[in-house]
Every structure is written in C-alpha cells, then in structure tokens.
Amino acid sequence: MTSELTTLLDAAHDAMIAVDATGRITLFNSSAERLTGIDASKAIGTLAQETIPNTRLHIVLQTGEPELNQVQSLGANEIITNRVPVFDQNGRAVAAIAVFRTVNEVRDLAAEVTNLREIQTLLHAIIHSTQDAISVVDANGIGILINPAYTRLTGLEPEDVIGKSAEVDIAEGESVHLKVLQTRQAVRNAKMKVGHKGRDVIVNVAPILVGDELKGSVAVIHDVSEMRVLSEELERARKRIRKLEAKYTFEDIVGRSVAMTAAIAAAKQAAQTKATVLLRGESGCGKELFAHAIHNASDRKYNQFVRVNCAAINENLLESELFGYVEGAFTGARKGGKKGLFEEATDGTIFLDEIAELSMNTQAKLLRVLQEREIVRVGASAATAVNVRVIAATHVNLEQAISQGKFREDLYYRLNVLPIVIPPLRHRVEDIPLLTQMLIERFNHDFGRSVKKISEDALARLCAYDWPGNVRELENVIGRAMIQAQYQESTIELKQIDLPDSPMSIGIQRGLPGKATIAPLADVIREAERNALVTAIAATHDNKTEAARLLGISVRSLYYKLERLGLADSVK
Ligand SMILES: Nc1ncnc2c1ncn2[C@@H]1O[C@H](COP(=O)(O)OP(=O)(O)OP(=O)(O)O)[C@@H](O)[C@H]1O
C-alpha cells in the first residue's frame, strides 16, 4: 500500500480493518486503533477473528455476502459496522474490509446533519423573505444564490444568474463581488446600475470566509430610487410637522367651571363637524387655544393649521395674502404667482383671528369663499375650489359692529354657524386656583424655579381681582411673582402679587379711559421700557447677553438703555 493511501486512511474518521484471502489483517488504521485499543503493528499479519473475535471478516470471505449496518459491542462501545468482500476478476473473494464507528458518533453526526438542515431552512426563509436583494457567488465569482427581492429589483431570474459570472447583472460599473474576492475585504455603499432596466443601486458586499478559506462573497443590494422616494416622503412629513402650528389640544385647556366645561363641550362637538366656528370672548381668554384644540381634534389634524391675524396684516396686502395672486397681478408680483393662505390651508384649517378688523371689501371676498367654497387669486379670472375649515375669532361685539355699519350682516350669519363663547376669567373664579397651579408648574420649568404653591391670602387676592386681560394677564402676574421670588422660596406670597388695585387702572385696560390717568406718551413708553429691562435682567439673573437676546436687542444697546434710564448702577 502506498504511504499516501495509508496517510489518507489514517486521517479517516471511520475505523477500517482489511483482511486478505486467508483472513490475516493487512490494514488497521488509526481510528481502528483508537476504537479497539490494539496497536496496528501488533494487529497486522494476525488472523482477524483471533485478534478481534467478532470482526466476522472471515465469514464475509466465506459467504461473499456483505453485512451492512450491523450493531455490535466492542469493549465499552457500541459500534455500527459495514463489512464488504472484495472480489478478483474470477469472482473469488480475495479480501474483505470492515468499516465501523461508534453508534454515538453516528448519532452525533445525524444530529449535526439535522442541525445543518434546520439552519439551511432558516437561512432560506430569511433570504427569501427579506426585502433586500441578495446575491451570493462562490470563490470563483460564479453565481450560486439569489433571492426573490433580487429578481424583483434586477429583473433577472435564477437561470440568468446561477452558474454565471458575477458580472452578469451589471449594467454600469464594475463587479464588486470580483473585487471582494480579490481583496478579501468588504466593500460598502458602492454605487452602480444593475439589471435590464439599469436600476440605480447601492451595494454592500462581504467576503464569506470559513476559517481562513475564502468560500465566496455575499452582496446586499439597495434600490436607490426606492430610498429616494422614502426620503422624499420623510421630508414631506418633516415639513408637515414644521408647519403644523396648532400645538395645543383640549388637554391643555384648564378649567372646570360650568361655563368653561360648556364651552369645551361645544368645541369638542364642533371639532367633529366641518362647520365654520366663531370663537367669541374677551382678549386673552383662550380663543386661540380653542382654535388649536378644535383643529387637533378634527380629522384635519394632520393637515395645515394656518393662523391669520387679520388686524396685523396691512389691508392692501391682506387680500393677496389670503387669496394669493397670479403672475403679473401687480408690480412686484412674484413670477409664477403665489398661493394664498386659504390655499396653504387646503384640507386643513384657517384661523382668522380678530375677524372684526377686516375691511368691508375683504369681508365681501371672505363671504364669497364661505358661500362658494372657492377663491379667486388677485388678478385671476377663474376661481379655484378650496377645502378649508374656517375658525374665526373676535373680542368685538359683532352685533354692535353691524349696527354701526362696520361688519357685514351676511358675513356674520355665515360665520356664526357654531358660535362658542369663552367666558371671561372673572366669570369663572373657581378656575383661578387650577390655572395658577398650571402656571406655577410652567414657569418652574421655564425659569428653573421650584415653587410649589401659592399662599392662601395671595390666592384670595387673585380671586378678588376681575382680570380684564383674562388668562394672559394672570400669566403675567404669576410670571412676575415667580421672577421676584427668591430661589429657595417655595410659596408665592401676597407681597409678590403685583396687581393694579385702582378701579381706574382696571378701566384703562378694559378700554374705558379716565382722563386723570392719561400720561404723556413719552413717559408711558419710558416706563414700559424700564419695566421690560428690569424684568429681563431679573429673569436672566443679570445675564446681560441672555437678557438682550430675550429683549431682541444688541448687548450694546442694552447697556446704552440701562445707562439712559438710570438703571446701570441698580442692576449691576
Ligand atoms: N383655559 C386655559 N387654560 C390654559 N391656558 C389658557 C387658558 N385660556 C388661555 N390660556 C393661555 O392664555 C394665553 C392667552 O390665550 P389666547 O392667546 O388663546 O387668548 P385669545 O383669546 O386668543 O387672545 P386674543 O384675543 O388677545 O388673541 C395663552 O398663553 C393661553 O395658552
């Protein structure tokens, strides 16, 4: 026997014993030594049935019949044996071979095979169900596996790819598989075009190394056009979030008084309809808060909420702002024209705050929108249909405005479909403790304070006041009190509640001026400026840069103003 053959047989996991025609052992490999505990040098040349009593090789020689899968004992082991005769050209048995291994080894092997099958099934399921296109080539760059996502992306079927060169799917660019096989290094984010349609893709390819041996490479291919669509969708969603200005919901409206509960219930009901809503109430009582909440509780919540302060926009611009304009509508008109706020709010809500401030001319145009549900851009001849829910708000007594000829009666009826009256704070004193607590928490957060509550006498003072500026005014009073409070203070005290107690000053805030209280405008402005500076300096703990930022002025300008108002020393 050649030495190569001996080495090979010694390396085999199976035990092997061969006998010649006389039944003497001619081969006894290492595994046979291991299983029998007999040295090959001692076994070779002996009669097999004498050295190993139940080899039965002499019987196989006699009968010429193979004995397959025989289980028997060998020392402490159970073994499974195959014995086969070897014949010459004349059909005479000239040798016999026994190949055996322990039953445990066979069981382990069977389990390993089962495991491998399970892993294979699992891999198959994963590769076939993933949305990522996958292709695998062997070490020679020949295709061995693709998945259905690959076929969807490239249009290539298994028969086009399996057994073919890795370059078969490339429409433009070089094969990354071949590069990875050459370098044994993974390649990430390679751009190329693949398949019949030359689809833009990004490819990640990794070598398959078993130990040190290169077995092939695997590529995961992403469709760029799909990614582009997804990122565009993401951008659209981001824009929507950015533009979604309605930040409050009904959860944010504080109030358990009967009047407030009724207003909230009416607003919740209105949210379920498409009807125009008219929010009425004094300044600062929460009309805008309600408008946000109605929008956010309606089926338009994922679309635009556009707020228009009718009092803040110049009358000449208002029409083009609301309804847009066509190219060349007026000098300075943008090329291609411009969408108006009604169109911006398509499928969403437009909140027309301070509606009573609209000119009679714009009122007529708004009436048309409400009647026809269409707008005409400035300079356009045709109308465009718009699907927009209108919420209007005013603190003005519209009935009185009608009788004074300042508000169109027909528009009033169009707007007044679902009127919701938000009661002034003085009519719902029982809400003051709740609102105060909510504000304390908000300002703790904003100013970094840790105030817990308000003292009883301070709260009593708040409840006795009649709040012409409503919740906005309460916000200011609590805000000021918390700025004044020392850091360690946990209760707002009466002395920190800064409320005007003269009935005259209340009158001024309600728009009922008393001559005695009117001061020269320059003094009023100077006083207001002084207050603003002191508050900002206090709120920022004397951080001039931050105070200037809050006031919207430069630091230099802040120092100048402090100097001019004689505050430079007191706030140092
Ligand atoms: N019920 C409430 N619960 C919580 N916060 C409220 C409530 N009502 C009003 N506010 C707060 O008071 C401030 C004024 O409210 P809002 O701007 O909605 O009033 P408004 O009636 O629209 O005022 P204006 O007529 O001056 O525009 C806001 O900061 C708002 O969040």
From TrEMBL:
Give the SUPFAM superfamilies listed for this entry: Homeodomain-like, P-loop containing nucleoside triphosphate hydrolases, PYP-like sensor domain (PAS domain)
Entries under Pfam families matching the protein: AAA_lid_14 (PF25601), HTH_8 (PF02954), PAS (PF00989), Sigma54_activat (PF00158)
Q: Known InterPro entries for this protein?
A: AAA+_ATPase (IPR003593), AAA_lid_NorR (IPR058031), Homeodomain-like_sf (IPR009057), HTH_Fis (IPR002197), P-loop_NTPase (IPR027417), PAS (IPR000014), PAS-like_dom_sf (IPR035965), PAS_fold (IPR013767)
Identify the domain of life: Bacteria
What are the coiled-coil residue ranges?
Answer: none
**Any idea where the Sigma-54 factor interaction domain is?**
253-483
Write out the entry's keywords from A to Z. ATP-binding, Nucleotide-binding, Transcription, Transcription regulation
One GO molecular function term of this record is:
ATP binding
Under the heading Gene3D superfamilies, the entry gives: 1.10.8.60, Homeodomain-like, P-loop containing nucleotide triphosphate hydrolases, PAS domain
What is a biological process (GO) this protein takes part in? regulation of DNA-templated transcription
Domain PAS span(s) in chain numbering: 1-45, 119-190
Under what name is this protein listed? Sigma-54-dependent Fis family transcriptional regulator
Say which species the protein is native to: Sulfoacidibacillus thermotolerans (Acidibacillus sulfuroxidans)
